[in-house]
């Protein structure tokens, strides 16, 4: 077992655990958007940032991909962490103004508005990549991809053509943290999706 501290509380982690997995084992709150136990972590959203400290030295790391290590000191609510978290929530509120889930999550952490220009009013996709990862890692297909780069990134079908390999299993819809996949899936498939009665991934 690996022993370290989170918010000055001694915790123990199994070999291979991340800081986030350890925190959840102990009921310590760290917000996430792009993380789900069913798929590999990517560190894309950066909401799970925590601060590592040693004397005067410190750094911010994404807890979902940072491995638990002997003797590290992790803090989840420092001024640096809260500042980064606030900026990320504000960016999400600007880029995903149509997501009630993101608005509710932001409110829970004290962020109710954004200083950034609002994008498309109905946009709810955070381009977290969970839909793509569950399709590849759990379903075993590659019906979904992330297209373009930077601010132009969006979810779609590979080669910008409706995918013929999508089996309408519903895993991407279930794992989507903002509900955006319910509308996106019809531009991924060659045929519109019928109402889903069985979903592959439980959340």
Portion of residues within helices = 25-40%
The whole-number mean of residue pLDDT values reads 90
Report the order of strands and helices.
Answer: EEHEEEHHHEEHH
Indicate the structural class: alpha+beta
CATH class category name of the largest domain:
Alpha Beta
- Give the total of domains: 3
Biggest sheet record = 5 strands, mixed
Strand content range: 15-25%
Radius of gyration: 18 Å
**Assembly state:** single chain
- The poorly predicted ranges are 196-203
Please specify the SSE layout and strand pairing.
Blueprint: E1 2-6, E2 9-13, H1 19-25, E3 49-54, E4 57-62, E5 73-75, H2 79-95, H3 100-108, H4 130-139, E6 145-147, E7 154-156, H5 171-175, H6 181-188
Parallel strand pairs: 1-5
Antiparallel strand pairs: 1-2, 3-4, 3-5, 6-7
Structural descriptors:
single chain; 203 residues; alpha+beta; Ubiquitin-like (UB roll); Alpha-Beta Plaits; 5-stranded mixed beta sheet; two-stranded antiparallel sheet; 6 helices; 7 strands; 28% helix; globular; disordered C terminus
Give structural notes.
By secondary structure, this protein is of the alpha+beta class. The protein has three domains: 2-76, Ubiquitin-like (UB roll), CATH 3.10.20; 78-124, no CATH class; 130-188, 2-Layer Sandwich (Alpha-Beta Plaits), CATH 3.30.70.20. The chain contains six helices and seven strands; from the N terminus they run ββαβββαααββαα. It has helices at residues 19-25, 79-95, 100-108, 130-139, 171-175, 181-188; strands spanning 2-6, 9-13, 49-54, 57-62, 73-75, 145-147, 154-156. The strands form two sheets. The protein has a five-stranded mixed beta sheet with strand order 2-1-5-3-4, sandwiched between helices. It has a two-stranded antiparallel ribbon with strand order 6-7. A hairpin with a 2-residue loop joins strand 1 and strand 2 (9-13). The longest helix has 17 residues, at 79-95. It is globular. It starts with a strand and ends in a 15-residue tail after the last helix. The relative contact order is 0.13. Residues 196-203 have low confidence and may be disordered.
């Amino acid at each position: 077992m690996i022993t370290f501290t989170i918010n000055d509380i001694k915790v123990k982690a199994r070999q291979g655990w991340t800081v986030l997995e350890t925190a959840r084992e102990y009921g310590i709150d760290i917000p996430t958007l792009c993380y789900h136990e069913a798929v590999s972590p990517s560190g894309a959203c950066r909401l799970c940032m925590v601060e590592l400290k040693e004397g005067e030295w410190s750094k911010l790391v994404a807890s979902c991909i940072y491995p638990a290590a002997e003797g590290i000191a992790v803090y989840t609510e420092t001024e640096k962490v809260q500042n980064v978290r606030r900026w990320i929530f504000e960016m999400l509120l600007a880029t995903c103004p149509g997501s009630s889930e993101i608005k509710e999550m932001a409110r829970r952490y004290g962020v109710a508005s954004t200083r950034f220009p609002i994008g498309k009013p109905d946009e709810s996709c955070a381009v977290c990549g969970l839909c793509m990862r569950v399709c590849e890692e759990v379903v075993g297909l590659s019906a979904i991809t992330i297209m373009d780069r930077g601010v132009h990134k969006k979810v779609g079908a590979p080669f910008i053509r409706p995918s013929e390999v999508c089996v309408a299993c519903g895993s991407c819809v279930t794992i989507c943290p903002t509900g955006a996949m319910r509308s996106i899936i019809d531009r991924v498939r060659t045929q519109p999706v019928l109402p889903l009665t069985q979903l592959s991934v439980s959340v």
